[in-house]
Amino acid sequence: MAKDSASDPGQSGRPELRVLRQDEWNIWYDSLIRAFSGVPEASEERELWDALTELDRSIGAWDGDACVGTAGAFSFRLTVPGGASVPAAGVTMVSVAATHRRRGVLTSMMRQQLDDVRAWGWPLAVLTASEPEIYGRFGYGVGTFHVNAEIDTTRVRLSVPPGTDDVRLRYAVPADVLDVCEAVYARKVPGRPGMLARLPGWERLGLLDPESDRDGASPLQCVLAERDGEVVGYARFRVKPEWDASGPKGSVLLRDTEALDPAAQAALWRFLFDIDLTATVKAYGRPMDEAWQHQVSDIRRCAPRVRDSLHVRLVDVGAALEARTYQAPVDVVFEVEDAFCPWNAGRWRLSGDAKGASCERTTDAADLSLSVRELGAAYLGGVSLGALAGAGRVRELRQGALAEASVGFASAVAPWLPHGF
Ligand SMILES: CC(=O)SCCNC(=O)CCNC(=O)[C@H](O)C(C)(C)COP(=O)(O)OP(=O)(O)OC[C@H]1O[C@@H](n2cnc3c(N)ncnc32)[C@H](O)[C@@H]1OP(=O)(O)O
């Protein structure tokens, strides 16, 4: 654990790292907001993050009374291929004051944090990066991507599957139907790698609706999809009215949507496409394989753009590779490089299939050589080891091992992170 008492700040010239205390949270959070060029002020969002911060898993770097570095971790459970829910540190709120940048403060916090995660016995750490270049040096690989789309709904039509017309839609006050939306979300979590089981309090994230973020759009709205009186899906969104000389050009700003079956999901998307006086659906952070991409008449007019999402770090290579399953049998020896967490370095034999896996130290000859960063990228099944080999980042030492591992690691469902943190 990070030390919880002062050593000699000032004398060594290095900020002191220690576990965050509740009475320090405001200074700590102000420092974070400043590093993100924000304005420290009272807000709904601030109140939520105060409630959600896990103090004993958060680190502050202090130079005297000044907080000059912040790093937090949430105790998430992450769905991995095969459907298991695996403990993962959700690394968050990382910042270093501009007065102390590029002196190794981030590096010292990452050192402390990964040692802590190992001590907690969690096999994974995950994060979303403000800039993708920062975290590779600490062994994180980009494990999921998502799509940001701006769909021209004046031109793009949606073809829907049979049963869509049987789904009934109704407006509801988002807070009033939170429980039923959460129940739908909970049923979706095991089915897609990258999804996060909801921790207590996190349901509030879906309702966060500060006026300062609306930029002229409506407050958050919710539509439920029902079949036979049962809620089978929901969409939460805002509508931003806009006009130009040719008429209405409003936007539908999708916050989130989940549904239990394809017809319910299609009914919700069709609704979003058809809202009167709007011309665009802005859907950001959507799964790479979501059905609407194959239901639209013109994908080009949806302007899809791909972005990195969840960065994955195997903190305990053996435990992490054992925690997931493999869609085809795999029996390979990895030679793993891990300069930042040397306890992972060396040879590991992974034997697994769709039922389970074992991953143990071995002295056998290696079949594939790679760094822990590539294992993190491939871990959730969305990035192919073959593609990483094509990029020169994985080396095949036994012929056939690359194809075997690439097929085994792949996920039939694209991994996806449902929300930022
Ligand atoms: C999970 C999250 O919360 S993501 C949010 C990250 N935070 C931010 O983006 C807020 C604004 N930025 C900052 O607070 C800081 O600049 C940080 C946290 C990104 C970096 O902190 P520093 O203490 O300056 O980093 P540190 O000195 O330890 O740098 C370590 C290495 O990373 C490199 N590095 C640091 N930041 C960046 C960056 N933004 N882009 C590229 N490289 C970077 C450094 O050059 C250094 O490289 P070297 O080892 O080859 O010399």
Keywords:
421 residues; alpha+beta; Aminopeptidase; Nonspecific Lipid-transfer Protein, Chain A; 3 domains; seven-stranded mixed sheet; 10 helices; disordered N terminus; binds acetyl coenzyme *A
The total number of structural domains is: 3
Through-space gap between termini:
22 Å
Shape: globular
CATH structural class of the largest domain: Alpha Beta
Unreliable parts = 3-11
**What is the overall pLDDT average?**
96
InterPro entries: Acetyltransf_17 (IPR041380), Acetyltransferase_Eis (IPR051554), Acyl_CoA_acyltransferase (IPR016181), Eis_dom (IPR025559), GNAT_dom (IPR000182), NAcTrfase_Eis (IPR022902), SCP2_sterol-bd_dom_sf (IPR036527)
Pfam families: Acetyltransf_17 (PF17668), Acetyltransf_9 (PF13527), SCP2_2 (PF13530)
GO biological process, one term: aminoglycoside antibiotic catabolic process
Protein name: N-acetyltransferase domain-containing protein
Task: Write structural notes for this entry.
The chain is of the alpha+beta class and 421 residues long. The protein folds into three domains: 16-122, Aminopeptidase, CATH 3.40.630.30; 146-308, Aminopeptidase; 313-409, SCP2 sterol-binding domain (Nonspecific Lipid-transfer Protein, Chain A, 2-Layer Sandwich). It has helices at residues 25-35, 44-52, 105-120, 178-188, 262-274, 292-295, 317-323, 372-379, 385-390, 401-409; strands spanning 16-19, 59-63, 66-79, 85-96, 124-127, 141-142, 145-152, 168-172, 221-227, 230-240, 243-244, 247-248, 250-259, 278-286, 305-308, 311-314, 330-337, 346-352, 357-361, 368-371, 394-396. The chain starts with 15 loop residues before the first strand and ends in a 12-residue tail after the last helix. The site of acetyl coenzyme *A has 22 residues, from β4 and α3.
